Amino acid sequence: MDKQKTPLFISLIPVLVLIILLSINVWLFGDNTTSGSNQLSLLVAGAVAAVIGGFYGVSWKSMLEGAVKSISSAMGALIILLLIGSLAGTWMLSGIVPSMIYYGLEILNPTIFLFATCVVCAVVSLATGSSWSTIATIGIAMLGIGGALGLSQGLIGGAIISGAYFGDKMSPLSDTTNLAPAMAGTDLITHIKYMMYTTIPSIIITLIIFLIIGLNIGDSDVGFEQVSIMQNSLSSTYNISLWSLLIPVLVIALIIKKVPAIPALFIGTIAGGLYAIFFQAELIFSLNEYEIGNSLSYLKNAYMSVMNAMTVDIEINTGNPSVDSLVSTGGMSGMLNTIWLIVCAMSFGGIMEVTGFLSTITYSLLHFVKSRKSLVLTTSGTCMFLNVTASDQYLAIVVPGRMFADSYKKYGLHPKNLSRTLEDTATVTSPLVPWNTCGATHAGVLGISTLVYLPYCFFNLICPVMTLIFAYASIKIAKVNVAQ
Fold first, then answer.
1. Inside any domain, residue 314
2. How far is CA 133 from CA 94, 124, 140, 251, 341, in A?
3. Are 435 and 391 contacting, i.e. CB atoms less than 8 angstroms apart?
4. DSSP class of residue 138?
5. What is the count of structural domains for the chain?
6. What is the pLDDT of residues 434-478, one digit of tens each?
7. Would you list the DSSP string of 230-242?
8. Helix or strand or coil: residue 3?
9. Is residue 156 one of the residues assigned to a domain?
10. Residue 63 near residue 354 (C-beta atoms within 8 A)
11. Which domain holds residue 261?
12. CA separation (Å) from 168 to 135, 161, 410, 436?
């Protein structure tokens, strides 16, 4: 493709347009920006990039193919999103999540809840290697428990995501944990061991913060009487049982056994639906008309209830408005806003890549590299920039990994410095961007706007700062014997 190299200030125009439009959206729509305004802003910014690209000789066919290719790369994530919506629906109908909430209220209180949530999500994510699966299963349950305890959604979301991304970052099963060393030129075990220097202090600080917040909240915000009322509402509506928790255990075991996310989530969804049919008959009776004593009628209505739970909104009336809000679910349809956002974001990223604007911007950052310290800073900045513009954490790892590998060799730095920096910035900041695939997904799954949970994702905010502190203080910066 023969096209002129665009100047930096020209390449930045679509990005500036996007930033301006997104800022206006936040000002006017608040935390409701993902309902349409952000999607349209991404398309407008993509259109601006396409117009400029056409002026510089890039064909419309090439740009369209770039957008389609970018969207295609996210198809796996989009299918997972739909399955997460259906899984949440059947797990709510079957009483799996309500049982988690019920028993969680037995053992947790506001003082230790945020701390415990972060630890539990970290352990599950470490075992599974998947922050997405952890947030979509354990995260949803913890959100329900925390809501029943009277905690704010932002705080709960921050604790869930902080723990999930610690586990994702440190797990040898994680795709990003394998991708980062591959791009930097080091091995997986070396990468994980080296990350511990910045990651362990970050999670310790995070846990201390959540513990302090919990101690200041105390038990006064929610009384034992209110908790008892909520538990009674759940037990009178659902057949609450510890046996239901075997299904989440099954899904986690499948992921640990390296079963791909899509079949694992599908199995979890079907298992939840079957459990509902066999053990939640009274609830299913209440959702649809039926003929007493007619088994065919029950099967028909059970099938309809499970299908509705997987695909659309279902309203479960427990007699307690607070509990009703906890057990509400949108099925696959509840994920459509998020899918729309990801498609628009990937379209923008694809056009920016094909036109060469992304490469112009990223390579111009190499001019800022004057020392080992500035190299780490520039790498971090590039990762975060690509999370915002390319809307994908994998690109935010791959592009800087390829771009800066030779520079780390030039400055005599071991490749594990690059792989650690990629994870400390690209992986953990991806859920903080509303239109990034990670940020959009988690906001859709949890039902919390990215900007609402962002201030409380302490681990994700501390990690990039920690890696810069280590670099500028020359703490644990591994070097190799390479001529500079």
1. yes
2. 19, 9, 10, 9, 20
3. yes
4. I
5. 1
6. 888 889 889 988 989 899 999 999 999 999 999 999 999 988 888
7. HHHHHHHHS---G
8. coil
9. yes
10. yes
11. 76-332
12. 11, 10, 31, 17
